[in-house]
Amino acid sequence: MRRWNGWGDDEIEEPLPSQGAEFLAAAVGHGTALPDASLNSVLSQVPASRAPQTAGLDHEPLVRVLHARGQSLPDWVALRAGRLGVVPDAVAHPANSTDVAQLIRLAAERRWTLIPYGGGTSVVGHVNPLPSEAPIVTVDLGGLNRLQSLDEASMLATFEAGVRGPDLEAALRARGFTLGHFPQSF
After folding, report:
1. Residue 6 in domain
2. Is the pLDDT confidence value at 98 over 80?
3. Mind giving me the DSSP string for 98-166?
4. Which of 19, 22, 26, 121 has its CA 20 to 30 A from that of 106?
5. Contact 139, 126 (CB under 8 A)
6. Domains in the chain: how many in total?
7. Are residues 89 and 155 in the same domain?
8. 126 and 136: one domain?
9. Does residue 129 register a pLDDT over 80?
10. Does residue 22 sit within a domain?
């Protein structure tokens, strides 16, 4: 459930109830809503990729925008204002650990900067690319999303790096367990 510029389903718009607007006006004063940047205007800012047309790398501007920022408040504000910052040159979608190892070897040989991208929340900014002379490749780990093991006695579960909260909970629930982070940490 992620919009290109924030959390939530793209198909659902939920206006602020009048009581909420009244409360906010009384608490902090009346404000003026700033217009959101359109996705098309943001896509028009995406520079040409510096990464080679190597198999397994996605150079599409939309995919690169979706991997350019995390989900912190500063990220949302920047995206809504149309200030992208640095965008990855490409996005890789490995399906298993062998793919990841091959990607790391290739990046070392060609001097690419790799950024791991798990759930993409990144409330600390680690998925946001920094300016670099080297091509930047974001490694979307969403294909590595399986439960590897579950020790029911110690209640220790090991998941692959790209598992998202709802999928993690579903896998545990099927075995009678929960991580217990719903919905706050999804």
Report:
1. no
2. yes
3. HHHHHHHHHHHHHT-EEEEESSS--TTSTTSPPP-SS-EEEEEGGG---EEEEETTTTEEEE-TT--HH
4. 121
5. no
6. 2
7. no
8. yes
9. yes
10. no
Pair 50, 125 in one domain:
yes
Tokens encoding 120: 């993409």
Which tokens in the block code for residue 142?
A: 């969403």
What domain range includes position 63?
A: 35-144
Quote the DSSP letter at residue 2.
E
pTM over 0.70? The answer is yes
Beta-carbon-side half-sphere exposure of residue 29 (alpha carbons within 13 Å): 2
CA distances from 58 to 23, 66, 67, 147, 156 (A): 45, 12, 11, 26, 35
Quote the pLDDT of residue 183: 62
Contacts for 122 with CB less than 8 Å, ≥ 6 apart: 69, 70, 71, 72, 75, 128
User: What's the pLDDT band for 81 if we cut at 50, 70, 90?
Assistant: very high
